[in-house]
Amino acid sequence: MKNELNQSELNESELNENKLKSGLWVSCDKCGSILYIKYLKANYNICLSCDYHLLMNSYERIKFFIDLETWQPFDETLSSGDPLNFKYKKNYKKHLKEAQENNKIQDAIITGTGFIENIPIALAVMNFNFMGGSMGSVVGEKITRLIEYATIKGLILIIVCASGGARMQEGILSLMQMAKISSSLRIYQRQTNLLYIPILTSPTTGGVTASFAMLGDLILAEPLASIGFAGRRIIEQTLNETLPDNFQKAESIIEYGLLDLIIPRFYLKPAIYEIISLHKKGFFSKKKILPKKLQISMNFINEEKNRIIFNKVNKNFKIKFNKNIILKLNKKLFNLFYKEILLSLKKLYLI
Fold it and tell me: Which of 114, 166, 292, 317 has its CA 20 to 30 A from that of 61?
């Protein structure tokens, strides 16, 4: 009798596994409830048993946020290379190709423009299902291009974050995206007074948290979203301590001022609409004119020029830009750095 019961339990578990694999059912990451995928999708991927917010892919997010037939995607064909010829268990090119085929996108983010209740916005949505939402050179480039476009067009910017951090397969090229995005965001926020809202979903960690996820004018998060830099397991192993259950959860982080609002997914679009409509009516909604030098695509030379210019030029852009100013500033900086290098070399020589 006991063997028969065990066998029936095994058959039931196998049946459940087959259902899960077939895409008809999914288990909740928190309570373990088996959920019918059709009802789960209708409920915006929120568990029907415990209200836990499960992952949403990029297309689901866009469908949820953007008004019907208003979405205009950017840079859909942009794809990563393999600059390091990275190989660990699996070739990076092969890994990338598999992720592209499984998710029907070229990389871990989709960018574009659309409308929320007839208000135009620039939107970027990260996809955690694509290699853990890792930020490589394509993710950084697409976000930067979107920010530049939003800056020129005067659009409100929203980025939905879901990432494990920088993509190790691309090495320093992935890490430099942090500074690249942050510098373009500075121009967007400080020089044009436009509104940037990051929405942190579970998980948001690593280099994404350390850069654009925490640079918003208003930082929103979903309930129980895991937000941090290093992972929980790594911290526990380093400190040899058991961390509390709410560690790195949105509800805990908001107490320390790192978040502004925690909004359930049901109310996220209405809340965003209220915020951006309020901003549109506000004093700072007046669009400022950008200098012509900024209305070109960014590269490392232009980024450096803009950084120098913004440190020297009046905020209202009343001073005219010309090549002589840039050259003079560059010479001054070069002389300054040259002196610093000489001093450091002398110190090393003395040691």
Answer: 166
